[in-house]
């Protein structure tokens, strides 16, 4: 994997940073919602320095309020790279199959490349499973989130036969909080009774698992996991891809793929922030990994 990418990079060394700059005048990295904008920017600040040095052009970060802001930026050509969730990638692909190229996927500590949608509630609520959520307030994150909406909207009705995600059906009220961090904070504060977020499902619950939104919340001091309880867990979901805008010059795509792919080896502390916790970094991925998610999104949401 590393050797292949390294050879590809060597093949482009005749193209200097100055030559690259003639084709692109800046490089723009989009960051999905899910936590407050400043924390997102801080976690990706290293990418600004590394990218500017590598490409020889100014690098900018964009942290829109919701997932759709990144999706539309990629479709409109105002964002060049982003780490998408699988459903956000599916949304981009369904609107324009040629807009972006999936290049890398996050690798868990055990070598797997999947994660879970995790349902959770406060321990003192007395809720221990979805069976206890009838008539209560349930929170999703963002309509374009895989673990924060798409997968639970498919699998929860399978768990509770005939249930829909409509307010007043099984759940007393269904709310979109705006993102993973917002869902975690709302449940922790008692503003909603339960919700879903994402985690690798590996490691210890009290740490927020090894990686994911719960781990970020623990690191930020937003929650004590001993106050929360897991009430549901989805089947394995493929980690979302790092994507690059297809129209970028090929040498730029090769260089940026290599940069992210080798980030864990070269700067593990910064890789922790970018990858939302402890991981083994990234490895190559293709569209094939997401065909089932594209089909699921098309059937549930449309595009």
Automatic annotation (TrEMBL):
CDD domains in alphabetical order: PBP2_PhnD_like
Signal sequence, renumbered to the chain: 1-21
GO biological process assignments: organic phosphonate transport; transmembrane transport
InterPro entries per the UniProt record, alphabetical: PhnD, Phosphnate-bd
Transmembrane segments: none
Entry-linked Pfam families: Phosphonate-bd
Gene3D superfamilies the record matches: Periplasmic binding protein-like II
Keyword vocabulary terms for this entry: Signal
GO CC annotations on file: ATP-binding cassette (ABC) transporter complex
UniProt source species: Yoonia rhodophyticola
UniProt similarity note: Belongs to the phosphate/phosphite/phosphonate binding protein family.
Protein name from the UniProt record: Phosphonate ABC transporter substrate-binding protein
